[in-house]
Specification:
single chain
């Protein structure tokens, strides 16, 4: 979400600067932004960062799933699951 907000803010800033500086300055900024975006080093860095993020998210998802299974196993092993089964609030009426 943060990256989307930064991107939108950058677009807005570019628009404001472009309209104030005139069409020529806007076109120069647009051209240089396009050159940066098409630069192979920048594209490789962006893809590498995206791949690393996907891998980290996958590991975190897997680890969270394992922890959830361990917690479920502990709760059912201790017999506590039956005590709170019908109770939506996590409290007992005893």
């Amino acid at each position: 979400m943060r990256y989307k907000l930064v991107f939108i803010a950058g677009l807005g800033l570019g628009f404001v600067i472009g309209t104030r500086a005139g069409r020529e300055a806007y076109e120069r900024m647009k051209k240089s932004a396009k050159q940066v975006a098409e630069n192979p080093a920048v594209r490789n860095a962006a893809e590498s960062a995206a791949q690393t993020g996907r891998q980290a998210a996958g590991k975190a998802f897997h680890a969270a799933g394992e922890q959830a299974q361990k917690i479920r196993a502990r709760v059912s092993h201790n017999g506590q699951a039956a005590q709170y089964e019908d109770d939506d609030w996590g409290t007992s009426n005893t």
